[in-house]
Amino acid sequence: MALPYPTQPGDVDHMITNDHAAVNRLFEHIEAGRGDRQILADQICFQVALHADAEERTFYPELQRLGRNDDAEELIAEHAEVKKLVKTVEQTEPGEPEFEQALAAIIKDIREHANEEETIFLPEMRNGAGAERMAVLGEEFLAAKRTAPTYSHPAAPSSGLGHKLADAGAAMIDKLRDKASGRVHTLGTDASGLLDPQAQRLMDTFAALDPKPLEILKPEQARRQPTLVDAVHQILEADGKSTDPEQVGSVEDVNLLGTAGGELPVRIYKPEGADSTLLPVILWIHGGGFVLYDVDTYDASCRGLVNKTGAIVVSPEYRRAPENVFPAAHDDVLATYRWLQTNAGQLGGDPARIAIGGESVGGTLAASTSLQLQEAGEPLPVAQVLVYPLTTAEQWGESFADAADSRPLNRPLLSWMAMHAFHGVPEAATDPRIALLDVSKEELAGLPTTLVITDERDVLRSQGEQFAVNLETAGVAVTSSRYDGMMHEFFGAAAVLDKAQQAQQEAADHFTAAFRAS
After folding, report:
1. Are 113 and 17 in contact (CB under 8 A)?
2. DSSP state, residue 57
3. Which residues, listed in sequence order, are joined to residue 306 by a DSSP beta bridge?
4. Radius of gyration (Cα) for the chain, nearest Å?
5. Is-catalytic flag, 488?
6. Which of 39, 428, 441, 510 has the fewest CB atoms within 10 Å, measured from its CB?
7. 467, 468, 451: which is closest to 505 by C-alpha?
8. To the nearest whole number, what is the mean pLDDT of the chain?
């Protein structure tokens, strides 16, 4: 359920409800009898261990500070009972009566516990502590999860001081247990049973690389974690295939001169056989929640589009948060597009045939760039492709519940990204460059022909599809295409996913049709 008041992504109550939503979706997979029951149980136990530890170090001491000692003790007692049940699940196997009874009790107890926290104690804590304090507690909550034990310890002290004294040793032992049992190799996969076989293999391979949960790490730590690109290479090697990048005519990293005199790093991809004929140009923008990843991570998408369209693809290395918060990325992409309008010929490109697109927040940046160009009365791209774009910073839509647990992007990670991207700029969440769903149909009217690509297992699915509806209502020529059985970030994995090949071809067809028409 959603809290009955607004929050910022870095607030402790926002984070706690994200955790509740993610673990509840795991419960629903268990109840529906789908997916891998053992892995689902492992993921539930892991998430409950981290969440309970963090609450006992941050949330409950704050309740005590506000004079709610009895309530805090009651919540701690509820945790103690759940920890005992989790211990039983950890020590038994699916199908055994003890396992099934304990798991059913965990589901019932945590749902009641979460409802109690969200309807009573979190609102009361916000009223007593204030918004600024909730943000501070959010940082402490994440820090606690980073150092928490990963197994249940019912006999361990539950006070804040007790955790500080006992957690380090327990966490070290638990990491060894995770490696010895092999559990660590499954915590990062999607165990819902809702992915198609190729996508499931990719996520299982990714999980076997032992990625830590990005949503509890510091940005510099998260950037060092394995990515789906690494998993794609693992599969290619296992299948005896080359991991060399898809061949294109040329690839060059250059620095363009921005409108403010600064440098704009971009990567330029040209097709085989590029000659003196001016070619169409695609400005393709990478994702990563404004915080993670770079042009290297999305290299495969650009190469695929070059070969499928025969166009020049330009990929900007825009500035990332938290080093450069909103609207730094937007400014860089807009400046890159304006440079192309004036200087495309220097690259062998046709300034009359420039299109734009991107993946995840790259799709957000593409759409917002088109809107800014239209507002300024400047020439628009001839087409845009938005692949699973972020179109609102709100906890919005059906997919925010049914894909709350999805990987590689889940609900807690999306909020973590927004927390860093909008740090110190809370108004960013309602800025029309982010809140695309709030843009009026009058402002949307006149935007270029648009393809919106979404996927089934993605928290951004609903908002991307709603944006397509809004565009259509505004009279924009739009196509909305959902790829079932796929997850966020699938588009660039065409080397191992047939549906990624199809999606890239659909994007290429959309671009080439617009190039012909122009």
Report:
1. no
2. I
3. none
4. 24
5. yes
6. 441
7. 451
8. 94
Residues 6 or more apart in contact with residue 440 via CB below 8 angstroms: none
pLDDT band at 256 (very low <50, low <70, confident <90, very high): confident
Proportion of the chain above pLDDT 70, given as a percent: 96
Residues 266 and 314 sit within 8 Å (Cβ to Cβ)? yes
Helix axis angle for 69-91 and 37-54, nearest 10°, is 150
Active site residue 458: yes
Distance of CA 482 to the CA centre of its chain: 17
**With the C-alpha atoms ordered 157, 163, 166, 171, is the resulting torsion angle positive or negative?**
positive
Question: Is there a catalytic annotation at residue 360?
Answer: yes
Which residue, 150, 126, 114, is CA-closest to 22? 114
Q: Which residue in 458, 462, 480, 510 is the catalytic one?
A: 458
pLDDT at res. 258 = 65
Instruction: Give this prediction's pTM.
Output: 0.95
Pick the catalytic residue from 20, 29, 286, 488: 488
For 66-85, what is the mean pLDDT?
A: 93
Q: Provide the sign of the torsion angle of the four alpha carbons 17, 18, 21, 27, taken in this order.
A: negative
Residue 270 near residue 312 (C-beta atoms within 8 A): yes
pLDDT, one tens digit per residue, over 289-337 is: 999 999 999 999 999 999 999 999 999 999 999 999 999 999 999 999 9
- pLDDT tens-digit series, residues 285-294: 999 999 999 9
Q: Among the options 152, 360, 406, 462, which is catalytic?
A: 360
How far, CA to CA in Å, does 392 sit from each of 47, 206, 430, 468? Answer: 27, 28, 8, 13
pLDDT over 60 at 259, yes or no: no
